[in-house]
Every structure is written in C-alpha cells, then in structure tokens.
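In this supplementary section we document a worked example of the pipeline. Step one takes a protein sequence of length 96 as its only input; no multiple sequence alignment statistics are reported here. Step two produces a three-dimensional model, which step three serialises into structure tokens for compact storage. The input and output of this example are shown verbatim.
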Amino acid sequence: MTDTASVSSAAGAQSAAAAYWKANLRLLIGCLVVWFVVSYGFGIILLDAFNTISIGGYKLGFWFAQQGSIYTFIALIFFYAWRMNKLDRQFNVHED
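The serialised model returned by step three reads:
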C-alpha cells in the first residue's frame, strides 16, 4: 500500500510541477510579447505613425525608441518579480 501512496504522491508532485512550469511560461511569454511590441513595434515598425504625435515637443516615435521602451522594461522587471513571487506562493515553492 505504501508503494501506491508514494506513486500517487509522486504523480501529484509531477502534475503540480507541470502546472507551475506552464504558468511560468505563460507569464514569461506575456512579458516577452510586451517587450517585443514596445521595443520593435513602437520603436521601429510604427515609428512613422507615432511620429505624427508629439509629447513635450518630441515626436512620440522618437520618445518610445529612446525613453518609453526603457520605462516599459523597468516596469516589466517589477511586474515579473511581483507576479513570480505570487506564483511561487501559489505553488508553495517560495524561498522565504
């Protein structure tokens, strides 16, 4: 009977690890999509469209390429850290 219990607990641990990894990948892919859209999309592809709008005397496309993408990346770092801490606690793999 102990063999059956250990096999079922191992299967449960594997499914929990798979669910944690799936949630982790979903978060990572979401952050990478935002990173790509802001850096490549706003700074390069949509540059001409955004340059028709001005913020503080600067064209929006230029602002995104020089400043906006950096602010977005910093916000992504804090968001990722906050969300991973929440995810770690949800799956009981947190460090503290």
